[in-house]
Amino acid sequence: PGSISAAFQKYLQHLGLHDFPCGLGSWNKSRCNARRSSRAELAGLEETLPPGEETPEVLLQLLRDQHSPWALPSDCSPQAQRLREVVVLAPELLHGSTISRLVKSLRILDKGVEEVDEGLLQFQQLEELILSASHISRVTSAHLPRTLKVLELCYNDVGDLQDLCTQPPPELQHLGLGYNRLCGPSQERHLTADFWPNLVSLDLSFNSLTDLLGLVSQLSTLQNLRILLLQGNPLALIPTYRGFLVDSLPKLSILDDIYIRPEERQQFQGLAGQP
Fold it and tell me: Where are the transmembrane segments (predicted)?
């Protein structure tokens, strides 16, 4: 199956990080050798470039000029351009998994990813992982970096949260599970502060959740929860759905993309305690 690691390596190849004018080659070989030995720097000498080599400034210009054959397409992200420029200035970063250790945000959308593999642990500073529109049915939490604060898995095939909740990232603030295959009541027990003590935002929209009372009893343990999306589930068809949630979760600020106004909270006061 397609893994996150494989998708990331394919993306790096697409950026041409190992090819001219990035990476290491005949166009910058002496500069990189001098950096390794640092003898020229210690001697305070300015050496002239050998024939066929280019200065970092010239190489950067080839990347930045929109008419250059080495320029990225206009739909590429600023981060992709920045990564190429960093590799021009420091091509030694291409060795091993150094680049992975520098990445803080990783977005892999609609690339056929099916597996959250162990290679993801190389991203030792990763804070945001977006894996929308993939084919992921199972997430092994042991493969998620502990630094993760945002995990977005919308438009996937996740139907069971047990593996995700075995060792969840302790600092996670947003969990996006919209447009998946979750159905209760067995999944609701995984949505408590025991697993997600710092969760601020939770998207469960457009699944098959039906047990409103059971779900709310679990969500009420999430003391930091401020944003909740449940629209698109069968439980959202219950006539008192919104009022019951507003009164049951007094710390909630936004429900289904709509701010909870003070007058709305007052209107539904006491509804949660009714049979």
Answer: none
Alpha-carbon gap, residue 3 to 119, rounded angstroms? 9
Q: How would you classify residue 44: left for phi > 0, otherwise alpha for psi between -120 and 50, otherwise beta?
A: left
pLDDT, tens digit, 9 for 90 and up, residues 93-146 = 877 678 888 889 999 999 899 999 999 999 999 999 999 999 999 999 999 999
- Do 40 and 151 form a contact (C-beta atoms < 8 A)? no
Sign, Cα dihedral of 191, 131, 257, 237:
negative
> What's the CA gap between 114 and 134, in Å, rounded?
7
Distance CA 18, CA 228 (A): 43
**Residue 105 in 3-state DSSP?**
strand
Q: pTM score, two decimals?
A: 0.86
Distance, CA of 182 to CA of 137 (rounded, Å): 10
CATH fold of the domain at 105-274: 3.80.10
Tokens of 78: 């600023």
- Domain ranges (residues) in the chain: 1-27+54-103, 105-274
Q: Are strands 201-203 and 174-176 parallel, antiparallel or unpaired?
A: parallel
Let me know if 45 is exposed, middle or buried by CB neighbors in 10 A (0-12, 13-18, 19+).
Answer: exposed
The label of the residue with tokens 């990189």 reads 32
Q: What is the pLDDT of residues 168-183, one digit of tens each?
A: 999 999 999 999 999 9
